[in-house]
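REQUEST
  id: r-88c1
  op: predict_structure
  target: Nucleotidyltransferase-like domain-containing protein
  payload:
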Amino acid sequence: MRELGLAIQTLFADLEQRSLDAEFDAAFPATGSFSKKERKGRGYWYFQGYEDRQRYSRYVGPADDPEIAARVERFRDLKADFTERRRMVSALKAAGLPTPDAFTGDLAEALWQAGLFRLRGVLVGTLAFQCYAGMLGVRLPAAHLRTGDMDIAQFHSVSISIEDSLPPILDVLRQVDPSFQEVPHQADARQATAFRNRKGFLVEFLVPNTGKDEHQGKPAAMPALGGAAAQPLRFLDFLIHAPVRSVLLHAGGVSVRVPAPERYAVHKLIVAARRRADPGGRLKADKDVAQAGILIEAMAPRRHHDLADAWIEAWSRGPKWRSALVEGLSRLPDEQWEMLAAAIRRAGGSRGVRAEDMGFLNDGPVGAGTVGDGFQPPSKPGSSR
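RESPONSE
  id: r-88c1
  status: 200
  body:
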């Protein structure tokens, strides 16, 4: 896997910082002020401002987030420099980093400006995958970067507790394309979790389903999403826990929240296994495994602890998780399978964890039901699995 030069990685990190500063400037004008509120023993920052002579309160973020706290302290001094950010985006594009197409970029920018990522929305799917190139310092294969939709996730507990909301979501989408329409949900036509334009581009909102499977198909009301509901999905809570900040290379940089790359990799192996029941899911499963493998290759040399932590956490969640993990693992090419096994071996010692007890055997992954029974060391490159 080809790595990006240090200068490019540094430029990407600088753009990420500047784009976040620009978001903060736009959302919180210097005429307002910040205050801290406590909810269930945890502190949160809110911004109080005036618009059309009316006072409003806007959610900012957790008080224990050091980056948010720092911006609260110096927000009057932050100055967005759009021209310079455009130059940085152009330089990163010229260096070969992935970019969204113009329409998708415009859509992400509109949602960013509306406050989606400030309200702790998380970009998931292939658009999030694009953001990992600059973050991890590697070049990503173009074949795995194409997408015709946008998936956005948010925790239900966040949506109901922050006391803030996007503008009407359909209005935001129609700023970019007036042909966007609600897609009535099959289980409740009064609600929409997805919006589609005339060309078929789909924007879908997702929420973790941590309850029983029979509730999975029912839309969840999401007060912070400007009138949109969200589709509950299993395993999504693992993916969007502790998301990270990154930037989409569009316009002057679009500051976004995306899943941590190690969680994205492990989650993709899980959902690839789950697609076996979907008649049209073969190609999607292949793409899931390919993206997971690319991230494993990128992270195994220097971020093996992160990979191991994500795998161990998922493995500890029970038999259904282990079953999906071992099936997804069996789909990886040998080299990437070995990289993941090696990451767990290297990082697991300090945790008292063996790769042998995490699904890795000489003949490949085994069923979750036999975990820990007479395991052999992970296979060597070139061995039969």
